[in-house]
Design a protein that fits this description.
Length: 265
């Protein structure tokens, strides 16, 4: 971690004001990156950007949903117009549906889950890739895309079936795209965390009540380390995966799961 530098590089992050997004973008900025931040939550996005700017970091923001292709295109346009280059793109925005067995999942929410978690990554990559290919042709430096999948992208996830379906899609999309651009100066990987202590878990699956300790025990019962990940345990890997020195790694679905996938799920 200590010798990683993103000096002069532009890093684009979707879902930038959530748990992973906030933590990772600050780490990138502290290592020299200029930031293009997007999120659907305007208030949280502005607050995060202002905190970064107050510390002297270069940040631009754009509000919108990754489910909207025009927003994804506008985010890339903002990076190019503001900083003239796009070096790292992290398609991180995501949400889940109401927990429940397949017949209990609300259909509209299931559709949103696919549209945001899978189509949002596709729209992002579709517009990030041409800018990155052109940049590589101009300066021969390798660019990197990182998509946020999940452990639910490499194994079944009871009561989260459509989330798992979307995240399996992200893994397939990542691997396919990595093969398409392997000789074009573009590395494309995805990250597959198990439960981490961010709002998607603390507000979506826990609720701040006295029962949270029991619920957390239940959530982590299948994880060999028997605990949630802390956000920084995930986000430091986001930097490592995108580090230009990590130059031979592409097409990987990297599990950060306290050992869960080692059990042969
Ligand atoms: N925290 C975990 O346990 C965990 C585990 C595996 C994978 N992930 C994945 O990591 C990514 C980041 O999750 P997190 O833990 O930081 O969650 P989070 O809920 O803290 O943050 C998600 C962010 O995405 C934004 N967002 C939601 N819908 C959006 C949309 N349509 N368009 C743009 N932005 C939108 C939210 O406003 C929020 O800022 C997600 O893709 C999630 O599925 C999280």
């Amino acid at each position: 971690m200590s010798d990683m530098t993103f000096d002069g590089m532009t890093v684009l992050m979707t879902g930038a004001s959530g748990g992973f997004g906030k933590s990772a973008t600050r780490m990138f900025a502290e290592r020299g990156a200029r930031l293009v931040l997007s999120d659907v939550n305007e208030t949280a996005l502005k607050a995060h950007a202002e905190a970064l700017q107050a510390d002297g970091f270069e940040v631009v923001t754009i509000t919108g949903s990754v489910a909207d292709e025009a927003h994804c295109q506008a985010t890339v346009d903002l990076a190019m117009e503001t900083f003239g280059r796009l070096d790292v793109a992290i398609n991180n925005a995501g949400m889940s549906h109401n927990p429940g067995k397949v017949h209990e999942v609300d259909s509209a929410r299931a559709q949103d889950t696919i549209q945001i978690n899978l189509m949002g990554v596709f729209y992002g990559m579709k517009h990030q890739i041409p800018a990155m290919l052109a940049g590589h042709q101009a300066d021969q430096q390798t660019r990197s895309i990182l998509n946020l999948a999940s452990l639910a992208g490499i194994g079944g996830a009871p009561t989260m079936s459509m989330y798992a379906a979307a995240k399996h899609g992200v893994v397939g999309l990542t691997k396919s795209a990595a093969l398409e651009y392997a000789r074009k100066g573009l590395r494309i990987n995805c990250l597959c965390p198990s439960f981490a202590r961010t709002p998607i878990v603390t507000e979506g699956l826990l609720d701040g009540s006295d029962e949270d300790a029991e619920k957390e025990k239940f959530l982590t019962r299948g994880i060999p380390m028997r605990r949630l990940a802390e956000p920084e345990e995930i986000t430091q890997s986001m930097l490592w995966i995108c580090d230009p020195k990590n130059s031979f790694m592409t097409g990987q679905a990297v599990a950060l799961d306290g050992g869960t996938s080692a059990m042969g799920r």
